[in-house]
Amino acid sequence: MSARAPKPAAMGPAAGSAAASPPGGAASLGRLDGLIRRCAALEDPAEQGEPMNRLDYLLLALATILLPASIILIGGWL
Amino acid sequence: MSTEHVAPRPPAGGPHTGELAVENGWPQLRSERQWGAFTVFSTSIATAIATWCFIIGGFVSYYLTAVPGTMAIIAGSLIGMFFIVLALLPVCTKYGIDSVTSSRPQFGVRGSLLSVLIIFGTTLGWNLILFIFMGRATTSILRGFGITVPGWTTGAAGVLGILVVLAVLRGGPHKLRDLGPPIAALTLVFGVIVMVLLVHRIGISALLSAPAVAPSSDSHTNWASGLEVLIASNLSWWAYTGGIVRNSPSSRTSLWSIVVGLGLGVGAGSLAGFYAGLVIPGSGGDPTQFLVRVGGPAIGILLLLFIIIADLGTAMVGVYAAAIALRQVPGKLSTWSWQSSVVLASLPAVVLVGFFPDVVFHHFSTFLSFLGVCFGPICGIQIVDFFLLRKQRLDVAALYDFSHTGAYRFWGGVNPVGFLAFAVGVATYLYLLDPVTYQSRVPFPYLTASLPAVVVSGLAYWAGAVLVLKPLGTGGYQARPIKTNPMEQ
User: Fold this and answer.
1) How many Å separate Cα B297 from the centre of its chain?
2) Please, what's the b/e burial string for A20-41 (b: 16 or more CB within 10 A of its CB; e: otherwise)?
3) Of B96, B301, B402, B414, which sits most exposed with the smallest number of CB within 10 A?
4) Tens-digit pLDDT profile for residues A35-55
5) What pLDDT is recorded for position B285?
6) Cα–Cα distance between B75 and B67 in angstroms, integer?
7) Pick from B27, B67, B93: CB nearest A38
8) Closest Cα partner for B396 from B17, B24, B29?
9) pTM as predicted
10) Which chain B residue has its CA at the smallest distance from A48's CA?
11) pLDDT tens-digit profile of B476-487?
């Protein structure tokens, strides 16, 4: 995490939110800080979603490629 | 892994930012995500099964008879989900982001406005159809009871549906999680009853002997057309899937929830429209009037309940996805309150449903084809980029970094390679299949149009990234330390 001061103008949606929040100060900076912190936290694999493993990809290919291909072949043969 | 109830930990994003992250499309931390397999599945089912299934199935009845048509609907649904899963599930679940944000590494932080427009257009279009269908069903069922209703009843009933959705979503995105399971359960129960009634009234033998409505002379073209309708329809889940799976902490638990819920959900739902299209001349897949005519008031009320519950459940997810997409637009829109975003996402629907329901409804076929044209290429580009070029790793902070040093800024925030690959994919589709007339060219009868569009756009993006982006050192493809602060220069 950078120690530099945030530059709201650098951010799109988040910057807009910060600039337009009514009191402008602490609340908007808090929101920006929330985005920054969650971006940093997501570099930790423990905060990332659980990925699919090889077996999942294999089963996905079987269910959505091999099975439909078989259905099409059988349907064409019928 | 059981993920239905994730024990809350202190939020790394700061206190009270969890709901903000959901509303603003910010990345959600794993510890904040509350949706387990059941919630993802029930939301998927509630989204998938709606009266659009009647229309989708009705299209297939133009080309195929009962047995091959049933097979094509199931096969097409599954094939479409293969690309949706690969394009969105790994990346959206890994980082807790929605479909628009997941497209920033391919189109650029500002170029992802294309995704916003497509999602907004898609969800608006689908919702228009659903609300108008709900209004038409209300009108026809009231008339079936012998009640005289004025012509504006269709629009008024549709607008009433929109207001119900607005009232529910005003409470926040978490309403989806709360209402998904009961809506899904009711939709499934009513859906099964409608299907059983339909098959019972039609009769199996009449169904099996019914010819296709307007088949081509070439059997391969008929099969490809039937498959294409379902593949294109399921590719349209691109607009909804990111918004659903980002709330789940695990790709593994979401995988079969969306393949079965979204993919087979729309496939199974389309069978009712398909069978109705085959045996009820001129119905176009809509069994409503037929069932009311042969079944009487009791079945009419049952049908109306099914249509209202199914369509409202789907429309809620559509408005939610559109609102999230709108809040990704840099500038004023992103500063609006959640309630205002939801109203903005619904406003065009109020006007179009209220005043032009017939015009909108009769252009559905063009709209459906448009979906396949756009989403196939996007899926191809995202799959190649995430798996082959970026090795399943994104710079999360750069997804929100609009500064000159942002990894996904490319040129002025836009990646021309992504847009070119998208255009090549769209052109491939349009060469193979005219989305308005459904006139096709070889190799459409053997490959459909969506599948080549996915492959060609993916290849075009890969070539552009290797030959242009990487040598120029733009797009975050070069090895460099990942920033954790999106504003760090």
Assistant:
1) 33
2) ebeeeeeebebbbbbbbbbbbb
3) B301
4) 888 899 999 999 999 999 999
5) 81
6) 12
7) B27
8) B29
9) 0.86
10) B94
11) 997 555 555 555
